[in-house]
Amino acid sequence: MLRLEGKSAIITGGNGGFGCETAILYAKEGADVLICGRNETTLEEARAKIAAYGRKAVAVRCDVAKEEEVLHLFEVADKELGKVDILVNNAGLSRTCNIEDHPTDVWHELMAANLDSAFYCCRAAAARMLKQRTGGAIVNIGSIAGMTGRAVSVAYAASKAGIVGLTRCLAEQLAPSGIRVNAVCPGPIPTAVFRDFSKEVQEKLMSTIKLNRWGSTTDIANLILFLSTEEGSWITGEAININGGAFMG
């Protein structure tokens, strides 16, 4: 039997990187999937890849940093999917700035993109899961930066640390209803967000990886899938590091 047969999932930032990879794995395992993002071209490309596995695939243009767009996103999910069993908060943004000249607008931009967006989506998904009374799984994407700090990524690291706090609070509240909430905290993965870092920063990050290779989107997607299935049914409130040994906390 497929591990996600009959399930419906929402993945933010599902039009690229490990968001798209996760959506494809979900479809392979029997789930209907709604993805969202801001680029209509890549959204449609990702939707077609998901649909190729015979599951319902819905793509919605949405900026999850904007509360009103998240409300619309979940209205579409209600209509197209009928229920929400799984939420993956994958959308995110990164910038590098030194603290002494860190623009205030960049701080707010990253908090909105990385933390506010997860809050909006968790709130909407949790309300539906509680009403459904069938449990559920929420996976929030954090970062190694949120666990260790990163000197030139103050806003990014702080927003991802906030993801861990959000995850644990929601896990505590929602566990009695069978809703599991976990965070996946990847190390350096050469995705679009990672490529915003300077060459110097990228080289420094590579030097910390004990397994001596970059992580892949498949590495991350496989962990997200595990946390979404019955195999991960006794795991909640965890911030799971996956970084090739770069951080062993």
Considering the chains and any ligands shown, give keywords for the structure.
about 250 residues, alpha/beta, Rossmann fold, 8 helices, about 45% helix, globular
What is this structure's SSE topology?
Layout: E1 8-12, H1 17-28, E2 32-37, H2 40-51, E3 57-61, H3 67-80, E4 86-89, H4 104-132, E5 136-141, H5 144-148, H6 154-174, E6 179-186, H7 199-206, H8 217-228, E7 239-242
Parallel strand pairs: 1-2, 1-4, 2-3, 4-5, 5-6, 6-7
CATH level-two architecture: 3-Layer(aba) Sandwich
Quantity of strands, as a count: 7
Overall structural class, as computed from helix and strand content, comes to: alpha/beta
- Write down the CATH class: Alpha Beta
Head-to-tail CA distance between termini: 36 Å
Q: Give the CATH H-level superfamily.
A: NAD(P)-binding Rossmann-like Domain
Strand order of the largest sheet: 3-2-1-4-5-6-7
Q: Helix tally?
A: 8
> What's the mean pLDDT score?
95
CATH topology: Rossmann fold
In total, the number of domains comes to: 1
Secondary structure: helix percent:
40-55%
Form type? globular
